[in-house]
Amino acid sequence: MSDSVDQVTGQEQVTEAVNDLLPTLRQRAQETEDQRCVPAESVKALAETGFFRLLQPARYGGLEADPMSFYKSVRLIASACGSTGWVASVLGVHPWQLALFPPQAQEDVWGADPATRMSSSYAPTGKAKLTDGGYRLDGRWSFSSGCDHATWVLLGGIVTNDEGQPVDFCTFLLPNTDYRIDDVWDTVGLRGTGSNDIVVESVFVPKHHALSFNDVFRCKCPGHEVNGSPLYRLPYGSVFSYSITTPIIGMASGAYDAYVAYQRDRVRASYVGQKAKEDPYGQVRVAEAGALIDGAWLALERNMADLMGHANAGKKLPLPLRLRVRRDQVLGTGNAIRAVDLLFENAGGRALAMGAPIQRLWRDAHAGRVHAINDPERALSMFGRNEFGLDIAPDGML
Questions:
Q1: pLDDT tens readout for residues 51-102
Q2: At residue 128, what are phi and psi to the nearest 5 degrees?
Q3: Which of 71, 91, 114 represents a domain boundary (last residue)?
Q4: Which domain covers residue 45, as residue numbers?
Q5: Are residues 251 and 296 in the same domain?
Q6: Under 8 Å CB-to-CB from 122, ≥6 apart: which residues?
Q7: Residue 73 counted as domain residue
Q8: Residue 392 falls within a domain, yes or no?
Q9: How many domains does the chain contain in total?
Q10: pLDDT tens digits, residue range 173-193?
């Protein structure tokens, strides 16, 4: 019982510490964008709050937190700085995935330093070939957010045999001695994420540094023999997909707060000195945007509660629930984007100024929207086919 109480207290302390850090992150938001990378000071400050330990196994000093504690902190961070929230979420979810890898892989990363961080790029754009004792990996992977703050990387790859036939789809774990970072990130949104390319040139990856998506989809992974917490029985497609949507909800929350604060004092010159806060149409937009943000968040809370309820009871996670999570996740992203648009469209010309938080959060949210996990048609089609009793071909993100 005391361990459970300590765990909850630790999670609450992290959230409080993150909240205290928000003014500093907000102040650094333009600097983060200008240098195209989250400042090292911000990452260090987040680490000191315990944020990166939330989803890490207790055996390596982690908190094995309820996923909502993680998502709450991500939302707060992203409300202050979209790029910092994005990087925090992506780097912060990787300890959860590493916990699914074989125990030796976890020891290789965390044995000497439990604070070691990993970046990722999951699209199978490189080549992975079966070889004695492991795999031969080669290629270029894009969009590895926060890679400058990590010393290991997780890379997706389709495994082929000697005949060139695909035999598996895996995530591969590599130390920074086996890859280089190519600085190519120069974008209109999420500029501060440093989502650069990872280049690998014919590197051997031992077998225990690979995790098959077949195991991930079945929620039966090698890491379960040492990490028995229900947290690690959740579907990858649920946990990771919401690590992409949550920062966007956070950006919408930040845009909402910035809009309300600005409109309270704004005078609309084009409407004979009307105070913006007295504009009934602006009032309607605030109501609609707030409802969209709340709806996205409440769906996340419900879905995580249902997932954890099944995991805590040791029950198999039903396919309809996993499909509903992905349905609500992509729609949650869409609703957050709609909320940001409603606010931005009514914010006035001064909101366009470089350094203004609304325009930056608007750009960041739309940049996050184009992530592959936010593709609505694929997730919604799977949900609809299942509702109609049709066969579905589950993808790797379910």
A1: 999 999 999 999 999 999 999 999 999 999 999 999 999 999 999 999 999 9
A2: -130, 120
A3: 114
A4: 2-114
A5: yes
A6: 154, 155, 156, 171
A7: yes
A8: no
A9: 3
A10: 999 999 999 999 999 999 999
In this structure, what are the phi and psi dihedrals at residue 378, rounded to the nearest 5 degrees?
-65, -50
Quote the tokens at residue 271.
């409407």
H or E stretch at 174: strand 166-175
Whether residue 223 is contained in a domain is answered as: no
| pLDDT bucket at 278, cuts 50 / 70 / 90 | confident
Residue 324 is given by DSSP the state H
Q: For residue 143, count CB atoms less than 10 angstroms from its CB and return exposed for 0-12, middle for 13-18, buried for 19 or more.
A: buried
Q: How many helices (H) and strands (E) does the chain have?
A: 12, 10
Alpha-carbon distance of 372 to 333, in angstroms, equals: 12
Burial of residue 203, with CB atoms counted within 10 A of its CB: 0-12 exposed, 13-18 middle, 19 or more buried: middle
SS3 130: strand
Do 197 and 271 belong together in one domain? no
For Cα atoms 187, 363, 37, give the angle at the middle one, nearest 5 degrees. Answer: 45
Among 57-61, 260-264, 319-323, 337-341, which stretch is predicted with the lowest mean pLDDT? 260-264
If you search the block for the tokens 């409109």, which residue do you land on?
Answer: 263
CA distance 37 to 268: 36
Q: Mean pLDDT for the chain?
A: 94
Residue that is written with structure tokens 């070691």 in the block: 116
Domain boundary among 114, 147, 171: 114
Q: Which two tokens stand for residue 240?
A: 């990771």
